[in-house]
Amino acid sequence: MTALFGYTDILRYSIKGNEEIHGYIDEIEKVASKASALTQQLLTFSRKQILEPVVIDLNDVVEEMSDMLQRIIGEKIEFKRDLNKDLPLIMADKSGIEQVIVNLAVNSRDAMPNGGVLRIETRQEYLDRIAVAAQPGIVPGEYVLLRVSDTGHGIPRDIRDRVFDPFFTTKADIGGTGLGLSTVFGIVKQTGGFLDVDSGESKGTTIDIYLPAVEGELEPLAIAQEKDLPLGSETILVVEDDPAVRKTVMTILKGAGYKAVEATDGADAIRKIALSNEPFDMIITDIVMPHIDGRELADKIKEANSDIKILYISGYDSVSKQPLSLISKREDFLQKPFTAAHLTRKVREILDK
Ligand SMILES: Nc1ncnc2c1ncn2[C@@H]1O[C@H](COP(=O)(O)OP(=O)(O)OP(=O)(O)O)[C@@H](O)[C@H]1O
Ligand SMILES: [Mg+2]
């Protein structure tokens, strides 16, 4: 499917300006996404698809799918996202969650033939005993809410009890299989969650999916393997004062198999080195930091351990060149922002020198 969407994108670029053919390409994509959704659905439904739960960030899943979702719902429907930051992680099968979202988005699209709004929201919710009382097997605690809502025609009252039944469909004429919502139900249940539907003719449909929040870190290997990143097992100290950048670098490195230790500034880095039982193979340091800058830090560390590899990172652009003047051309440098692939390749290259 990725290849198919890739080729349709290439086609679209190579015949820029031809509206009619663009229309055909859109149709190919729609049919293809439907076909893949159906195949997936049948597989899940027949339990041939084994769900493999890993720790994931629901917001990342939604973000990654956004372009695809916009293509599926078309231009008449506005796609809004309201993803709450600091969302706890969940333990779920990623493609299962993608399938849940696609199925719901497709249902919403079908309910808004004249356009409307599809909204995907995420947030954290604490459910107490009263809130989960009606849900068999669900315990009180922190949950991640995935809310998919539309401004469509709503689910008529007389069929509301049946929409989750396998093969129940009001779309037999357009090829509906009636497996969409039963698949959603199955995946949510297997993920340890539950769902709630609120629908009405004048207010559209809102599906709330509650999935148990988990404590823990992003499943490292899942990230690495997915993108085919070069791996390693060396020990790396990450010195970066920006918490968001630091967290990202840490996640990528751990994802690629490295033992990564974080430090918030130069002084913290020196402390971490002194406290560590194991020598560090590499330091990744920001150049511009308060008190001790990356250059000074690297010099200090090298005095004690001349074998240690250093990779500088910095957000300054090529125009200002300012921090770059602190390091020589022979030294290794990576400009922010960088991707997981850039970072892991650079790290591997330096360690293998
Ligand atoms: N967002 C929605 N708005 C209005 N009706 C809906 C919505 N979602 C589901 N329905 C109703 O529930 C029925 C069952 O949905 P389900 O996704 O299981 O199957 P389907 O959409 O008919 O077929 P398929 O998903 O295989 O294409 C739909 O036929 C439709 O009548
Ligand atoms: Mg459906």
Task: Write a structural description.
There is one protein chain. The chain has 353 residues and is α/β, with parallel strands linked by helices. Mean pLDDT is 85; it is low at 221-225 and 317-321. α1 runs antiparallel to α2 (19-45), α2 crosses α4 (94-110) and α3 (58-73) runs parallel beside α4 (94-110). The chain is elongated. It contains 11 helices and 12 strands. The chain folds into 2 domains: 49-214, 2-Layer Sandwich (Heat Shock Protein 90); 220-351, Rossmann fold. Strands 1, 2, 3, 4, 5, 6 and 7 form a 7-stranded mixed sheet that branches. It has a 5-stranded parallel sheet with strand order 9-8-10-11-12, sandwiched between helices. The protein has helices at 2-14, 19-45, 58-73, 94-110, 129-132, 180-190, 220-227, 243-255, 266-275, 294-304, 340-351, and strands at residues 54-56, 77-83, 89-92, 116-127, 141-150, 194-200, 204-214, 235-239, 259-263, 282-286, 309-314, 332-335.
End-to-end separation: 38 Å
What is the total number of structural domains? Answer: 2
**Helix-strand string:** HHEHEEHEHEHEEHEHEHEHEEH
Strand content: 15-25%
User: Main β-sheet: number of strands, strand sense, barrel status?
Assistant: 7 strands, mixed
CATH level-3 fold name of the largest domain = Heat Shock Protein 90
Strand runs, count: 12
CATH A-level architecture of the largest domain: 2-Layer Sandwich
- Rough outline: elongated
Provide mean pLDDT, rounded: 85
Helix content: 40-55%
Q: What is the radius of gyration computed over CA atoms, rounded to a whole number of angstroms?
A: 25 Å
Q: CATH top level of the largest domain?
A: Alpha Beta
User: Which stretches are low in confidence, meaning pLDDT under 50 for 5 or more residues running?
Assistant: 221-225, 317-321
Structural class: alpha/beta
How many DSSP helices? 11
